[in-house]
Amino acid sequence: MTESLSAAEHARRMTVYVREGMQRAQRIGNRGPVRFDAHGNIHPDIVDAYWQHGFYVFEGVLRQAEIEELRRDVLHILERAPVAPGATVDAEGNPAVGIDMQRNPYAFAKPLADPWGGTDASSGRHPSKMAAPVPDGNVPDHVVLIIAGMCQLMESGLRVYGHPELLAIAEAINGPDFVPYNDAIFIKQPGLGSSVAWHQDGVTHWHSPNWDEGIHGVNFQAQLNKTTAHSCLWVVPGTHKLGKVDIAAMVERNGGSDRLPDAIPLYCEAGDVTIVNRQTLHASFANTSSDFRISVSWGFHRRAAVLGQHGHLMQPPHVVYDDEFVDKRADVIAVAIDARSQLYTDETPFVYQPRRDTADQYRWNPETFDKVIRDYNTRDIAI
């Protein structure tokens, strides 16, 4: 989409689209609290609904104190972020938080812009541009869109990574030997937050003889603020079953508009957590609303799907996801479980089956921080 429009006009058009999208979303439903069956497993109705539509919205997962801690920690990092792309100091001239990490944790974008649509970024998986309205008033040249490395940057991020109900969901979808994908905190400031163009996350297995509707894994996204349909993630239900879809053709059939007619918004209250199949077509629009969206995102793969694959999205192409590479990244799960259990003593910790007999080796302490958590995201996995 190349049409130039003001932020106010974009917001007006989104109002109509939001009303229609909310109607579609409410017809589907596919949301509710985490529920278990009599055997302590995620209720099969939830799992079936996820596989039918390619997403689910879990309501009220995070307790209020955890929401507030996560929000406080994210806002602190945002305040101490580099002042611009390539900078190493914050607005006060002090070294930016996380700037000493081996992998730069910050991704910037121009306000209300589409940084990836129509480019070769991420193996060209964002083939069509989103609307990029002109911001109102004086705005910064760039804003932070993504903060990566949450398990190192903030203990609250490590603890939410070890949430027992969410890990049980990952196990129900990917099996007991599930392994990590990556993590990213999405920042969508009101009147500034840029878009993320329509895409499917997977790049590796589209033509694999073993392809199925779950082979590229699942994403989790915890909302730290109320996210309305004006600012939240949108998905096209059922597209995870279709293989690699022709996104550019879909946009062209829609008259060049990024407001795809079958999409629905994953609107949430603070503390809700969405899961989205990585093959489900999804996007988020430029945030011309008054919402401040902070979404803490992370994901998981089937171990069998990643073993033997190459770097693709997160690593140089020569990197092979062998057992050693995968195991080192999966160690973060075990440490996260223990870190959470040290604070939330009223919870029953999740038992991660691949570390069931060695859990004592992954206690959360300074030694395991240096051994497992420091620069863990240099071993992120993506297929």
Topology, pairings included?
Layout: H1 7-28, E1 31-32, H2 44-53, E2 55-58, H3 64-79, E3 106-109, H4 121-124, E4 143-148, H5 150-153, H6 155-161, H7 164-174, E5 179-188, E6 196-199, E7 218-223, E8 234-236, H8 247-253, E9 264-265, E10 273-277, E11 281-284, E12 293-301, H9 303-306, H10 323-343, H11 366-373
Parallel strand pairs: 1-2
Antiparallel strand pairs: 2-10, 3-4, 4-5, 5-12, 6-11, 7-10, 7-12, 8-9, 8-11
Strand order of the largest sheet: 1-2-10-7-12-5-4-3
Oligomer: single chain
Largest sheet: 8 strands, mixed
Low-confidence stretches at least 5 residues in length (pLDDT < 50)?
none
Question: Which structural class do the helices and strands define?
Answer: alpha+beta
Gyration radius, in Å: 20 Å
Tally of alpha and pi helices:
11
Question: What's the rounded overall pLDDT mean?
Answer: 96
Amount of helix = 25-40%
Shape: globular
Q: Kindly, what is the distance between the CA atoms of the first and last residues, rounded to a whole number of angstroms?
A: 28 Å
> How many separate domains?
1
